[in-house]
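Much of the work behind modern protein science is quiet bookkeeping, done one molecule at a time. The protein below has been through that process, and both of its lines are reproduced in full.


***
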Amino acid sequence: MAIILHLETATTNCSVSISKDGEIVALKENNAASYSHSEQLHVFIKEALKEASLSFSDLDAIAISKGPGSYTGLRIGVSAAKGLCFSLDIPLISVPTLQSMAHQVEVKADELVIPVLDARRMEVYSCVYDAAYKEARETRAEVIDEDSFTEYVSGNTVYLVGSGAEKCRGVLQHPNFVFNESVVPSAKDMASIALQKYETGQFEDVAYFEPYYLKDFVLQQKKKKN
């Protein structure tokens, strides 16, 4: 039995889950605009272990959402994951953030899902996935205009999901586009991807692994509390 701890900190959602052979047995998360990951992540890890009646020694691997996303959020999550892997001597698994988002949408044959995370101005992070959640186009940082993704939409339903979907809704007019801004990266959607990588030995080098930033770091300060 593979027991995997999953950490998702790429966006505002601080999310922790534990799975047994791909089935979620504990989930703790909070989607707060204040980016409270540094305060909440380790608390959520302990609470998830308690909910699942497990200890750190029961874990077989740590899975981390590798990005793209928030520089600070990714650094916090990866640092926590690497620290646990070193101390517990267990492998590190990386899960593409956009791929786990795609798993939140059920798509039929010939349909596509495009997770889009909000970046600066009219820019998004995006990747195109087919009905089997395999990459049909690589991850990019791109500016949304009226021609974005038009090569995929002829005759097919294309789901645009995530925080960048609102930008897309304003400029993409084809009726085959379906928009869903409510999809956020969550540790609950990492389990099947992480299990497959665990079973096939697709592990990261804990010493050298870095998040997938995709773009240069721009400092984002926390909002001040009133």
